Amino acid sequence: MPNTKYDIDLHRLINGTSMFAAYERLTGLPARGIRTTRGVLVPCPSPDHNDDTPSCSVRDEPNAKVWHSFCCGQSGGLLDFIVFAEGARTRGAAVDWLVEERLSGVPYEPTIDFASKARHRKHVEPLLRKQVVDRYDYVDLDGTLLYRVVREEGVFSSGKPGKTFSQYRPSPGCNDPRLYGTEGPGWEKGIAGVKAVPYRLPEVFDAARAGKPILYVEGEKKVKALESLGLVATTNSSGSSWNLPPEWAGYFQGTRSLIFLPDCDLPGRRSVALRAELFRKAGIPVRAYDLAPERWDHYDVANLVPEQRAAGLDDAGILQELRQRCAAHDVTSLIQKTNLRLTRKDLEQQIRELYAARFQLAPPPAVGVPAV
Fold first, then answer.
1. What span, in angstroms and rounded, lies between the C-alpha atoms of 139 and 220?
2. Which helix (H) or strand (E) element contains residue 282?
3. Treating both helix axes as pointing N-terminal to C-terminal, what angle do 220-227 and 301-310 enclose, rounded to 10 degrees?
4. What are the distances in angstroms from CA 86 to CA 124, 208, 219, 353?
5. What is the pLDDT of residues 215-243, one digit of tens each?
6. 6-16 pLDDT, tens per residue?
7. How far apart are CA 314 and CA 151, in angstroms?
8. Per-residue H/E/C for 186-239
């Protein structure tokens, strides 16, 4: 099929591009992983999903350039892959990316020094002594169980701690899969085709209709930390890069304010800029606050709450600390200034610069360039 913009054969362009070459160009990681019958397992290409074990299957065969992220529950072809890894915002822009990168027709050869990539070594290193530390059930408005996310923690052979997440759906005909273990007869792995909903949906829906504020964070562990303070909070499965369905806005209609609390890192802050726009367009009041704008080390509310408890504060004291941080670090206006048409790298750089100017921080290094 010809592409009128470039006068090229789109099928030939896609079929002539190596999935592995695109993966390396998009992520900066070597496309070497665990070979399976479904392809090669590599770290998830989502820039927001720093998974600790290879969780994305990539196939690079003629007329079968496909991928599936088991941790995020998303899959597709080469153009979807480029959008998912945020090399482009749309499939049309992904075609532009392919043309500009000139990967089509070039035989794939590994271009990244595998030995120098410590992060990739971590990903292909198996997580040992895994133990289930928590299970998070996602239910519909009427309480019907839709799926479950299981959090496991362990250590790598180097001794460094790690974690991984798995998603399960109830088996057909099982009256109550919660009676079984996660890998028991009541469950099937994967949630493809299952209706996705916000975590704690019934509580979120009731709070919104009552005009109460709702906090949106990254991950179920942070939701539970906020719930321990008596707050209503939610999140989504599949990571902070997962595209929220537009219809989700209906669940939040009536809330006094939908408050985003991002993790203190670039992926977290970038995801707020992307997601807040969806709710704002639906007429939902949106605010965004940052716990510690000077930090970029993944600090989050699940760190803050136990940290303050260890310092001797009770729940009222922790709530006061949280309110003070939010009042001092309102970033609502900053996320409204971000240019969502930028590529991931350029958007991250813009966010760094906005934070540096707003909070009088040191000028940021370019994204991908380590600070001296």
1. 14
2. none
3. 40
4. 23, 32, 21, 20
5. 999 999 999 999 999 999 999 998 877 78
6. 556 788 888 88
7. 28
8. CEEECCCCCCCCCCCHHHHHHHHHCCCCEEECCCHHHHHHHHCCCCCEECCCCC
The first and second tokens of residue 368, run together, are 């991908």
- Judge whether 220 and 26 are in contact, CB under 8 Å: no
DSSP state of 177: G
Q: Dihedrals φ, ψ of 67, to 5°?
A: -150, 160
Tokens of 178: 């919660």
The token duo for 64 is 């079968």
How far apart CA 140 and CA 138 sit, in angstroms, is 7
Which pTM value belongs to this model?
0.74
Please compute, for residue 246, the number of CA atoms within 13 A of its CA located in the half-sphere on the CB side. 3
Beta bridge partners of 222: none
- Paired tokens of 328: 């001092």
Please report the domains of the chain, with CATH numbers, ordered by start residue. Answer: 10-101 (3.90.580.10), 123-194 (no CATH), 196-371 (3.40.1360.10)
Residue 271 makes CB contacts below 8 A (sequence gap 6+) with 48, 218, 240, 241, 262
Expressed in angstroms, the distance from the first to the final Cα of the chain is: 49
Tell me the C-alpha distance between 226 and 205, whole Å: 17
Take residue 364 and report the two structure tokens written for it.
């940021």
User: How does pLDDT run across 95-151, given as a tens digit for each residue?
Assistant: 888 888 888 887 776 554 444 444 444 445 567 888 999 999 999 999 999 999 999
Residue from 339, 336, 264, 351 nearest 300 by CA:
264
The one-letter code for the residue type at 3 is: N
Length of the chain: 372
What six digits make up the tokens of 174? 């099982």
- Identify the CA nearest to 217 among candidates 264, 165, 148, 158: 264
Average pLDDT over residues 160-189: 81
Question: Other CB atoms closer than 10 Å to residue 140's CB: what's the count?
Answer: 12
